[in-house]
Amino acid sequence: MKKWLAAVSAALILTPPGAAMARDSYPERAITWIVPFAAGGPTDAMARNIANEVSKQLDQTILIENVPGAGGTIGATRAARAAPDGYTFLVGHIGYMAAAPTLYPRLAYDPVRDFDAVFRFPDTPLVLLVGAQSPYRSVQDLIAYGKANPGKLNFSNAGVGSTSHLVASLFTSQAGIEITPIAYKGAGPALNDLMGGQVDAMFDQTNTALPQTRGGKVRALGLTSAAPMPQFPGVAAIGAQAIPGFQVSTWYGLYAPKGTPAAVIQTLYSAYQRALQNTGFTRQMSDQGILLLAADDYAPQALQRHTEAEGKRWAQVIEQAGISLQ
Ligand code: MLT
């Protein structure tokens, strides 16, 4: 009897909290993914598409909770403070998981210290867009007007530190023009005002820019990808037509609050790997101008390393380009 009791108590001590839940019955209830931008933007669209496929693999509901504001840092703060129980995650991205620590001095979280990486999403390049009625028909037209009229061009963005803000800041700094940035709670509302003629231009990710470009609601002047994309026929890379080497993509990933059981992270990553075996799903993303990555790049450890490296890189980029909270 004593031997049996000793074995059970040893097992109880060796099983870390949450591992049993993760191994046997997780997820028992709906999971929440926090998206720190307004609904209808590229991050929201990417998150919903991936959540839909992962949900099928888990046979469990994944709820998308939009928590917009301050370039995504409000939602990221909410996620960092959530219980590490496997039921709340952050859809992170280049802005609030790499640029924000440099842009927001009193950030309430640390992207590396306060989160465990779960898996990386594919990347999205961006498209320089103007309204359909805009007089600008090329990147050079826009730059020429900007040089002759400092501050007159207004660019919408999804908040300080969003990709739309960062890329516009890099573009204007390297093109030698001054613009007026106008911040929204996400690229969705920012794009609506571009289509409505309230702003002159914006950088939007390919997955949400494509339908509006095809529909003639906006005009694409240039791509931030290394090369042209078949989804945007006749549109050259900005690096080829105006600013040599100009190339940025938004990267994304799913993150858990630090201390989430490793078994939970493995369960989610395995479900994502199975979802990526569905060629219909991956083809649908490619057709939206989303750039699929090598399989190993999606892994938790790869995302953790990428997050650390990007934080260091964007600190330098922001310093050199003089990007600020404006
Ligand atoms: C951005 O970085 O601009 C975001 O992707 C905007 C969004 O997803 O709403």
Automatic annotation (TrEMBL):
Transmembrane segments: none annotated. GO terms for molecular function: isomerase activity. Keywords: Isomerase, Signal. InterPro entries: BUG, Bug_dom1. Residues 1-22 form the signal peptide. The keyword Isomerase applies. Belongs to the UPF0065 (bug) family. This is 3-carboxy-cis,cis-muconate cycloisomerase.
